[in-house]
């Protein structure tokens, strides 16, 4: 790649019917802030970071949004992506997510991670990854 060409992950963007509401949910879940929100678009980022300093999550309005079915089912709306969050206490993280407005998915596949559904129906995972958390390179928590 040409060294003059700069490419950096800015954000992961999620379609939803109400960007402001979904941004507020994820900001509460992560302890982040909502630096910008309007009827069509909202973004969240870690507190104290300049725009673009750290990849954030953005939410864009989609009037035709249909929540995906979890787990996937042939002929039903499929998930296009999902977010994974590393946690140090899985049960506490699940309870926090529920308090913020998430629901625990009916179908689960592991004891070390839990599939949750955000208020718009997007699946996301809370993952207990001790090997990562105990690594000297871990800067997530």
The main sheet comes to: 4 strands, mixed
What is the count of helical runs? 3
Overall number of domains: 2
State the helical fraction. Answer: 10-25%
Distance between the termini: 33 Å
CATH architecture of the largest domain: Roll
Within CATH, the superfamily of the largest domain carries the name 2,3-Dihydroxybiphenyl 1,2-Dioxygenase, domain 1
The SSE order reads EHEEEEHEEEH
Strand order, biggest sheet? Answer: 1-4-3-2
Note the overall shape.
globular
Strand content: 25-35%
Alpha carbon gyration radius:
16 Å
Uncertain regions spanning at least 5 consecutive residues: none
> From the helix content, strand content and strand pairing, which structural class follows?
alpha/beta
CATH class of the largest domain: Alpha Beta
Descriptive notes:
The protein has 2 domains: 65 residues, Signal recognition particle alu RNA binding heterodimer, srp9/1; 76 residues, 2,3-Dihydroxybiphenyl 1,2-Dioxygenase, domain 1 (Roll), CATH 3.10.180.10. 19% of the residues lie in helices and 28% in strands. A 4-stranded mixed β-sheet has the order 1-4-3-2, with helices on one face. The mean pLDDT is 90.
